[in-house]
Amino acid sequence: MACDEAKPLHAGPEDGWHGIVAPGSRFAPESGRYHLYIGYFCPFAHRVNLVRVLKKLDSAIDISVVKAYPKGEKGWSFPGAKGPDDTYEGSTPDKLFGSKYLHEVYFRADKDYKGKYSVPLLWDTKEDTAVNNESLEMLRWLQTGFNEVLPEGSPERNLDLYPEHLRAKIDEVAKWMTRDLNSGVYKAGFARDQAAYEKGVIPVFAALNQLELLIHKNSGPYVLGKDLTELDILAYATAIRFDAVYVQHFKCNLGTIRGNYPVIHEWLKNLYWNVDGFRETTNFKHIKENYTKSHHDINPLSITPLGPYPDIESSVNLDFNRIKPGAISHPAVLQYQQTLSNV
């Protein structure tokens, strides 16, 4: 999964890179060798960058950040693409090549590339080529691929978001979470007719209903209880964007997280305010302006709503057992929820 808002300049089938950084492999772990291209707006790039920060790989893997908008046929751009006055707070130049557009980086790796110019993209400066542009793959191997460059015995080296004793449960939940929540908001938001919209939006709230119960059952502060796992990363990247853009922009308005899901709300606030890495990798300006100013068929006037305000509320209640779980009780939502795994 990746964020790609541009049509390829050369028509053709999708393509991409699926390399893995690991000791003894072609792409060996080395500090400073790799460079990550991201957009702060993109939930898929967000989860990769979040693991990078959680693992304290900030200095080992530098980043270049594309502008949140505008979207065009040439794809995501870097500041200065349209001249010296073309700036955007929080974005950066292409630190490796000084490219104007992200597609230029893709064509460095393959001049005949026919896929989409998406973020995230990991680049190998040693071999001057792309390593990987699939976020779920990077989410998994970034957890261990660079361990040998981290201090032995350090918390970040020992951080494992896919621990052996929880793998079966993570796999079970991730299946419906990625399908119905992470991808579901896009299925609803980009629907071209009423039937497709309803087919897309119902699973979104069924998944949120299920997530609410799951966090409550495990007593927090994380999805599966005391261990921070991949599920928290997957859910956070969507949940932090939900009230800010998905409710209004993607018509996911059967409810809001802050108004209808008290357990998810406290889980989300705790990650944002209390767990290093989550707030630092979240940029609401990029998030709000990308969606509202890039999808002209959905929002033709490119007006960005001021709300919700504040972007995320403060004060966190970690006594999850005392919170009564919420739910959206739409009949179709409840019916679909029954098809999901048992909490």
Short description:
With 343 residues, the chain is mainly alpha-helical. 40% of the residues lie in helices and 5% in strands.
Task: Describe the protein.
The protein is mainly alpha-helical. It has twelve helices and four strands; from the N terminus they run E-H-E-H-E-E-H-H-H-H-H-H-H-H-H-H. It has helices at residues 43-54, 102-109, 135-145, 155-158, 167-182, 184-189, 194-217, 230-249, 257-260, 262-274, 284-294, 331-337; strands spanning 34-38, 61-65, 121-124, 129-132. The protein has a four-stranded mixed sheet with strand order 2-1-3-4, sandwiched between helices. Helix 1 (43-54) links the parallel strand 1 and strand 2. Helix 7 (194-217) crosses helix 12 (331-337) and helix 8 (230-249) crosses helix 11. It starts with 33 loop residues before the first strand and ends in a 6-residue tail after the last helix. 44% of the residues are buried. Mean pLDDT is 95; it is low at 5-13.
Mean pLDDT: 95
Q: What profile does the largest beta sheet have?
A: 4 strands, mixed
* Tally of contiguous helical segments: 12
Order of helices and strands: EHEHEEHHHHHHHHHH
Helix share bin: 25-40%
**Strand order in the sheet with the most strands:** 2-1-3-4
Distance between the termini: 26 Å
The assigned structural class equals mainly alpha
Low-confidence stretches: 5-13
What's the total number of strands?
A: 4
**Strand percent estimate:** 5-15%
Report the radius of gyration as a whole number of Å: 20 Å
Shape: globular
